[in-house]
């Protein structure tokens, strides 16, 4: 197994694991925060504007971690610097 | 597969490239500027108003109210900056219904420049309404030990703003492109509709976060809150 195959295997497997874990954990976090927001909305409907705005900002904060994982896996698949290096070396020879 | 509209180049002369990001950004700027100019050219103050003026008033009033809800007291000072960001990002994601259009916010360079605008605007408003020395002193609160962490948080939240908007916009286009190869007809339409919703939510969040950062720079970190005596004629 040469180094380019190793890089390809590592990139693809890592991209899958990154997206998988990076979807699970923020999903749990978002579910918990939405549940808490719904509870407080049911208890205090008057404060719905504040709760909703804070919920949106918090959800964006949580979701950005998922987005980071997504961006990393997209870079690993479509714009992998190590893979590009191997390609450039093999075409240069 | 194109990762960003940067890679679609319309015109090139030497190292000067005119890619899709720049062209679509200019198009959006034209639409916003000419649209606002045409609407506000014949502005009326009496009860009889054109429907476009009513639309513009609704947008401005809503943005003002949202900025005020975050904790900025005079939203007229900030709507020039925050409202422009909101309208640009919202229109950029709303125009995805036009075929052949890529949102310029799906490019990391656009979102980075927007986030850099926020990075500059926060100390600008902070110094303008709090004073130079007291704004600088707010970096060393509560203790001097927190100084490097405050500076790191300035930089990291700029990075987070840029990557969040870029990732959301790019993932929308990417998911549609992947689904087009799997289920060609129905599913991409639904994902486009969800993408419209995501784009509006992201533009709202970008604006609100910028407003929260500005509010933190000018409002809560005051050196000495003035304790005004309560008015006595309450009874």
Report on the structure:
The complex is a heterodimer of chains A (93) and B (235). By secondary structure, chain A is mainly α. Chain A has helices spanning 3-43, 48-78, 81-92. Chain A has one domain: F1F0 ATP synthase subunit C (F1FO ATP Synthase), CATH 1.20.20.10. Chain A is 90% helix and 0% strand. The relative contact order of chain A is 0.17. The model of chain A has no long low-confidence stretch (mean pLDDT 88). Helices cover 67% and strands 4% of the residues of chain B. Chain B has a two-stranded antiparallel ribbon. In chain B, a hairpin with a 2-residue loop joins strand 1 and strand 2. In chain B, helix 3 (79-94) packs antiparallel against helix 7, helix 4 packs antiparallel against helix 6 (147-182) and helix 6 runs antiparallel to helix 7. The termini of chain B are far apart. Mean pLDDT of chain B is 84; it is low at 221-226. Chain A binds chain B through residues 49-50, 53, 56-57, 60, 63-64, 67-68, 70-71, 74, 78-79, and chain B through 1, 3, 66, 69-70, 160, 163-164, 166-168, 170-171, 174, 201-202, 204-205, 208-209, 212.
Count of DSSP E strands of chain A? 0
**From the 3D coordinates, which CATH architecture of chain A would you assign?**
Up-down Bundle
Rounded to an integer in angstroms, the radius of gyration calculated over CA atoms of chain B is 21 Å
Largest sheet of chain A: none
Oligomer: heterodimer
The strand line-up of the biggest sheet of chain B is: 1-2
Order of helices and strands of chain A: HHH
Roughly how much helix do the residues of chain A carry, as a percent range? over 70%
**Termini separation of chain B (Å)?**
71 Å
Largest interface: A-B, 15 and 21 residues
Total helical segments of chain B: 7
Q: Mean pLDDT of chain A, rounded to whole units?
A: 88
Characterize the main sheet of chain B: 2 strands, antiparallel
Number of strands of chain B: 2
């Amino acid at each position: 197994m040469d180094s380019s195959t190793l890089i390809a295997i590592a990139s693809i497997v890592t991209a899958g694991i990154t997206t998988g874990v990076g979807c699970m954990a923020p999903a749990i976090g978002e579910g918990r925060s939405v549940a808490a927001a719904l509870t407080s909305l049911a208890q205090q409907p008057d404060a719905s504007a504040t709760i909703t705005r804070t919920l949106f900002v918090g959800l964006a904060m949580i979701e950005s971690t998922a987005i980071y994982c997504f961006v990393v896996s997209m870079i690993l698949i479509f714009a992998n610097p190590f893979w590009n290096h191997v390609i450039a070396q093999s075409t240069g020879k | 597969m194109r990762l960003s509209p940067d890679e679609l180049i319309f015109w090139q002369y030497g190292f000067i490239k005119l890619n899709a990001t720049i062209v679509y950004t200019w198009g959006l700027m034209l639409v916003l500027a000419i649209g606002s100019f045409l609407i506000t050219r014949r502005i009326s103050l009496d009860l009889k108003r054109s429907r476009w003026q009513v639309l513009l008033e609704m947008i401005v009033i809503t943005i003002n109210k949202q900025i005020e809800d975050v904790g900025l007291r005079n939203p007229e000072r900030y709507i020039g900056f925050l409202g422009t960001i909101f309208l640009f990002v919202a229109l950029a994601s709303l125009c995805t219904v036009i075929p052949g259009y890529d949102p310029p916010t799906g490019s990391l360079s656009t979102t980075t420049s927007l986030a850099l605008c926020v990075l500059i605007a926060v100390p600008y408003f902070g110094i303008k309404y709090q004073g130079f020395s007291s704004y600088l002193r707010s970096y060393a609160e509560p203790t001097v030990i927190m100084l490097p962490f405050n500076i790191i948080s300035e930089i990291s939240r700029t990075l987070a703003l840029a990557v969040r908007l870029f990732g959301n916009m790019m993932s929308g286009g990417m998911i549609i492109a992947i689904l087009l190869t799997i289920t060609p007809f129905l599913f991409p339409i639904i994902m486009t509709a969800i993408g419209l919703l995501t784009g509006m939510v992201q533009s709202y969040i970008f604006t609100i976060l910028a407003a929260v950062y500005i509010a933190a720079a000018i409002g809560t970190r005051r050196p000495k809150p003035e304790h005004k005596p309560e008015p006595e004629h309450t009874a």
